[in-house]
Specification:
The chain is of the alpha/beta class. It folds into 2 domains: about 150 residues, Medium-chain alcohol dehydrogenases, catalytic domain (Quinone Oxidoreductase, Chain A, domain 1, Alpha-Beta Complex), CATH 3.90.180; about 130 residues, Medium-chain alcohol dehydrogenases, catalytic domain (Quinone Oxidoreductase, Chain A, domain 1, Alpha-Beta Complex). Strands 3, 5, 6, 7, 8, 15 and 16 form a 7-stranded mixed beta sheet that branches. It has a 6-stranded parallel beta sheet with strand order 11-10-9-12-13-14, with helices on both faces. A 3-stranded antiparallel beta sheet has the order 2-1-4, with no helix packed on it. α9 links the parallel β15 and β16. α1 crosses α9. The radius of gyration is 20 Å and the shape is globular. About 50% of the residues are buried. The model has no long low-confidence stretch (mean pLDDT about 95). Bound molecules: NADP nicotinamide-adenine-dinucleotide phosphate. NADP nicotinamide-adenine-dinucleotide phosphate binds next to α1, α3, α4 and β10.
């Protein structure tokens, strides 16, 4: 089967002809892949910096949307023909940039009807990251003020929406092209991050006190973000930034993990239209190398998605 990945850690992304998966194990399903998400995190996998459970030669890709074609003997939740999405780590047979994958049935959830394949494929990692940062690291409460730095991106935008849905007062930074979208997601104030005084302006906006908590989604952005947080407040970053020195603010470095209960709820919100994720570009599996380059450069306009050409028509 056709797949895209690398022959060795650090090697270039290329098309691979990999063996078809054997039948599923008792707790696994085989998925006919329609679309697979591409993020700059895939480049960390390519270079060997994130262990996703396989060694090369291997297909990359940690987000999948597709149709179940076979189920293991102990799987009760899915049948062939079911449409699913997921962040199925650790990878079992191959990564998701492939025509078919075998995954733990507990790590995929139903794809809501009406959600396009490309949206479903780009959704799991940013949605889970945003949810885990807000609910577990920052414990954002409904009556609090939250700053999202980098809300123009996929994860930041979903964090704005999820926090607004739980009643928080959300302030965000975004570029001019994304500001309206971030406002529609629920930010009451959107500041242009190109104005370097934005942390001070947020302090002024909060009467000098600073926000209760902040989520940083910009690589290297934690040092700026912490300047807008009140004494005793909370900062979480999803970028691997170091804890900013000398602040009286709690700090969390968030790494996404699969969680099917969370993903089920998030997918339901996506299906109901309470969450949205505009996809920036779709490319065929054969252009995986270009897709990854684009994601690494910064996916202005939305996430990058690979299509296998095997998808049933979009709803
Ligand atoms: N730790 C984890 O588990 C985890 C999970 C997911 C993502 N991440 C990381 O989180 C970061 C964001 O990921 P993503 O997929 O959400 O990103 P993305 O969709 O690629 O976001 C890119 C957007 O960030 C905005 N941006 C760029 N430079 C900025 C700056 N200096 N200040 C404010 N905004 C800026 C731009 O939006 P505008 O349109 O507003 O200019 C750009 O479109 C990446 O570094 C990614 O690797 C980590």
């Amino acid at each position: 089967m056709l797949a895209a990945g690398m022959r060795e850690f650090g090697g270039p992304v290329e098309l691979l002809d990999l063996p078809e998966p054997a039948g599923p194990g008792s707790a696994e399903v085989v998925i006919d892949v329609s679309a697979a998400g591409v993020g700059n995190w895939d480049d960390i996998v390519r270079s060997g910096g994130w262990d996703v459970g396989l060694t090369p030669p291997m297909a990359l890709g940690v987000e999948v949307a597709g149709t179940v074609v076979a189920v293991g003997s102990n799987v009760t939740g899915f049948r062939p023909g079911d449409e699913v999405l997921g962040h199925p780590l650790p990878l079992r047979h191959q990564g998701c940039w492939a025509e078919r994958v075998v995954v733990d049935a507990g790590l995929v959830v139903p794809k809501p009807p009406g959600v396009p394949w490309e949206t479903a494929a780009a959704f799991p990692v940013p949605a889970l990251t945003a949810e885990q940062a807000l609910s577990e690291s920052l414990r954002v409460a409904g009556n609090e003020t939250l700053l999202v730095h980098g809300a123009g991106g996929a994860t930041g935008g979903l964090a704005v929406r999820l926090a607004a849905l739980r009643g928080a007062r959300v302030i965000a930074t975004a570029g001019s092209a994304s500001a309206d979208r971030v406002g529609r997601a629920g930010a009451v104030e959107v500041l242009d991050y190109r104005d370097r005084t934005w942390p001070e302006r947020i302090r002024e906006w909060t009467g000098g006190a600073g926000v209760d908590s902040a989520l940083n989604a910009v690589p290297g952005g934690s040092a700026d973000t912490v300047r807008a947080v009140r004494e005793g407040g909370r900062l979480a970053t999803i970028t691997g930034d170091r804890r900013p020195a000398g602040s009286g603010v709690s700090f969390a470095d968030v790494y996404v993990r699969p969680d099917s209960a969370q993903l089920t709820k998030l997918s339901a919100l996506l299906g109901e239209g309470k969450l949205s994720l505009p996809v920036g570009v779709t490319l065929p599996l054969a252009e995986a190398a270009a897709a990854l380059e684009r994601a690494v450069r910064g996916a202005n306009g939305g996430p990058v998605v690979l299509l296998t050409g095997r998808r049933p028509s979009n709803p």
